[in-house]
Amino acid sequence: MPITKFLERNAELYKDDVSLVEINPEIQEKNRVTWREYSLIEQGSKGDGRSEITWEEFNKKANRFANFLLSRGIKKGDRVAILLMNCIEYLPIYFGILKTGALAVPLNYRYTAEEIKYCLKLSESDVIVFGPEFTGRMEQISDRIPKVKLRLYLGEDCPTFAESYNKLVTYCTSKNPDIELTDDDHAAIYFSSGTTGFPKAILHAHKALVHSCLVEQNHHSQTKDDVFLCIPPLYHTGAKMHWFGSLLVGGKTVLLKGAKPDRIIKTVSQEKCSIVWLLVPWAQDILDAIERGDIELDRYNLDQWRLMHIGAQPVPPSLIKRWLKIFPNHQYDTNYGLSESIGPGCVHLGVENVHKVGAIGKAGYGWETKIIDENGNEVAKGDVGELAVKGPGVMLCYFNDDKATSETIHGDWLYTGDMAQEDEDGFIYLVDRKKDVIISGGENLYPVQIEDFLRKHEAIKDVAVIGLPDARLGEIAAAVIELKEDCKADEEDINDFCRDLPRYKRPHKLIFAEVPRNPTGKIEKPKLRKIYCGESLVATQVEMNVNKQ
């Protein structure tokens, strides 16, 4: 059945129960609402930085938007883009699109104006819904997106090149539009993160979205009583598909704006959150704040918090050891996935396998995995190869890109582009992105392995290892190191620390700078290469010219 049926079922069974809560700490702090006052005032008032809707209200909002789109000629197979920050309207808009039979096209809120235009054109979007944060970027391209004839603005002071969402949609009928949908109908287009190139449009059917609901609930055992804290951006498959577990059971979800450590802990306490999905930098920041004494845990009610899980990037084992030392009663899990595999869960560690921290796990619920060489043959256990996955959540294709599709989909298998190896117990470990492997003097260097080692240094907050051109070795490993606040370390300290690494794995160059990450926590290595490879390439060319002379 299509995923919209889960929402309609919840609206019938749990109509008066809260489905979504939005927390905006900036409004709370601006209005000087204390957490004691916050617990006493009427919940849901706009002035307290908190709003909520029930499952019945959620479904009605989705129906209103669906009926509005249908009234404006949007039909099955059309595409509707969403360019919003996380907000309580996001998911009703998403489901309203699906109820028409159109495809939802979530856009990264960090896209530049030109990237927005590119993605709208690539996805052939007919409509866009955008918020006030994007007015300037939309204005820059408003006369260059002719196919996007309907531009809906969610907010006050609607710009002249758009129409007001609130004025048009609020008074539409909330009756279910009853458009016939099947599992095989196209449902959504997501965009790749762009960490290895320009974003590609990823097409998924309803059956893939439904399978992600089943995967998430199977892995994390959500019940109706669980409260899920969602912080990552909803345009990304990771956040949305983890929320799908709550959708499946009719549980409450809290959308928190911002990721400051104290705000996260306060929200978990106040909203009685039991499941929290974090990115690596946020988990590190929470631990650092606790260890510095900025957060005093005995001031909060955290007994109900049962599960912390991390995804979207390799997880340093040292981080989880620190976490479980402070939160010994927590279950921990990690999930591996790609937008091409409808987000997290095609590989899954499992809360019972905390002794295997560092691995991404085994094939997830309903999934198969294999590790292959360049010819598509499975490698021996312990050998490094490319991870391939197979299951109901594999994308249909890269929309309007047959070449990229043929390079990634081989029969029923999705080639992930991630290099991995399997241990004797069948647990899979990520080694690195295929495109990030550094070949230095004929040796393959896997940056993630070097990064994991360096993160054990007590002064290092974050690190990224990239390859730089070298006249003699072809490439050398360079470590971009971000130090913790109030911690000091220099090249000599780091080089001494690296003596425990095999000589060929030691970074040849150390760069002390901030490590850029995208909204889903992935290191933006193309950005680092652009910054540092240019300088290195010039130096290499000079050296080569000198050698020729």
Note the main attributes of this structure.
GMP Synthetase, Chain A, domain 3, 17 helices, Rossmann fold, 27 strands, globular, Luciferase, domain 3, 549 residues
Strand percentage: 15-25%
| Largest β-sheet summary | 9 strands, mixed
Mean pLDDT: 89
**Mind telling me the CATH class of the domain at 1-17 and 53-99 and 106-181?**
Alpha Beta
The CATH architecture of the domain at 1-17 and 53-99 and 106-181 can be given as 3-Layer(aba) Sandwich
Question: Within the largest sheet, what's the order of strands?
Answer: 2-1-11-10-12-13-14-15-16
Oligomerization category of the chains in this entry: single chain
Uncertain stretches of 5 or more adjacent residues: 35-45, 535-549
Describe what you observe in this structure.
The chain is α/β, with parallel strands linked by helices. Among the domains are: 1-17 and 53-99 and 106-181, Rossmann fold; 379-433, Roll (Luciferase, domain 3), CATH 2.30.38.10; 438-548, GMP Synthetase, Chain A, domain 3. The protein contains 17 helices and 27 strands. It has a 9-stranded mixed beta sheet, with helices on both faces. A hairpin with a 3-residue loop joins strand 25 (460-470) and strand 26. Helix 12 packs across helix 13 (317-326). The protein is globular. It starts with a helix and ends with a helix. 44% of the residues are buried.
